[in-house]
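Example (one chain per record):
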Amino acid sequence: MPRPTEALPKHPSSAALWRQGWYRFAAHQASPNFGPRPPQASIDLVVLHAISLPPGQYGGLEVLQFFNNQLDWQAHPYFDQIKGMQVSAHFFIRRNGELWQLVSCDDRAWHAGASCYRGRSNCNDDSIGIELEGLDGEPFAAAQYETLGSLCAALMQHYPVAHVAGHEHIAPGRKADPGAGFDWLQLQKNLGLDDRYLPSAVRLDAPSPVASSAALKR
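Predicted structure:
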């Protein structure tokens, strides 16, 4: 597997960062689980997810294998629950901040499922899916926020992104990721976004889940 690039330039041009929907500063491992976007689709939504395989275990190859239909279904009892599923995301960010890309952003990855947001259904059609290595409701690592911020900034420079939401916001009741452990306030401040970019449940003055958790432990 290729090694992700560690150093990011401060002010790269959009053209220098992208080639046919592939991000220069990600390790690439193309997934077969994608398709064309509908004609005239506006890529204006970023959807954040959480994933770990097996749940709560980090650092292995299982997530990348899953997105490439190469997971050994016999390797863990949990895998029976996802056996045969063919899914993908555009990006995967590990706990240490490593960034992997599996599908060109110009193509339609299979990450959202049955979904509806900003008055539109089938969010796969016009969204970019980013998977964070983690567990629903649990905190994410500082290195992940750093990589996510750089990636989202590059996406917003190249695509007409106007919304950032979690899987829980586009498929409420069916999905719960990234969950209460994700610090929306930190992402919002890192990117300098106003509230119109974020789900209505997320506000700039809302308490940080990480800060709230720390306060409870005192």
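Caption: The chain has one domain: 25-217.
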